[in-house]
Write a sequence for this structure.
């Protein structure tokens, strides 16, 4: 049996959110402990929380929705490149990324499913998870854009330079409107190393949306 890695972030009250009014709320609306016949919860969840998968409609005015993709688009062989652990507000450069690729036995090709692991996901309960996360250099984002990836997974909540924004995610989507992005992941870079895996990041079956929560998993030793 292949080893499975859960690489998604949990959902909980008080968790991080991109904006204050995007915060999640999880609450019971009936409880057997209170004498009710059943225990039932209400989830008030933002599409961009926990770990989510999104289409280019997140940044572009198009009709590319999650329902535009078959299930097979979310269950794919993938290549994972580990470049961590990255420090607070560290810029991940193209040279750093290419150096990490050079230590593997594969290349990154057009249309690949790619995960880049910085080790930052473990900080998801920290107050600085958003503000101090590592980010990609414009040169790295441009290189990734030229690969017209099928899917890019990252374990940092923002890949843009927050102090000098250059619209990193929009750049990726403009290069290929069918690229999918899965973020932020939580990858233990001590046990999940650079290599080939199978990724399963099937979103919730919600109609007419360009982003949804998912629980991504990696299966080891898939060639």
């Amino acid at each position: 049996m292949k080893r499975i890695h859960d690489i998604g972030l949990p959902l909980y009250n008080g968790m991080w959110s991109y904006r204050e009014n995007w915060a999640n709320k999880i609450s019971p609306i009936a409880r057997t402990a209170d004498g009710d016949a059943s225990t039932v919860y209400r989830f008030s969840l933002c599409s961009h929380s926990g770990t989510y998968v999104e289409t280019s409609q997140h940044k572009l005015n198009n009709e590319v929705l999650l329902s535009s993709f078959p299930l097979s688009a979310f269950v794919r062989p993938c290549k994972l490149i580990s470049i961590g652990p990255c420090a607070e507000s560290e810029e991940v450069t193209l040279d750093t990324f290419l150096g990490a690729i050079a230590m593997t036995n594969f290349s990154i090709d057009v249309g690949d499913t790619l995960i880049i692991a910085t080790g930052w996901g473990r900080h998801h309960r920290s107050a600085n998870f958003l503000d101090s996360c590592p980010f990609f250099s414009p040169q790295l984002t441009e290189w990734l854009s030229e690969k017209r990836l099928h899917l890019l997974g990252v374990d940092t909540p923002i890949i843009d330079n927050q102090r000098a924004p250059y619209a990193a995610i929009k750049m990726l989507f403009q290069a290929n409107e069918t690229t999918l992005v899965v973020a932020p992941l939580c990858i233990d870079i001590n046990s999940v190393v650079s290599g080939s895996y199978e990724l399963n990041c099937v979103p919730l079956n919600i109609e007419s949306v360009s982003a949804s929560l998912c629980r991504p998993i990696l299966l080891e030793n898939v060639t």
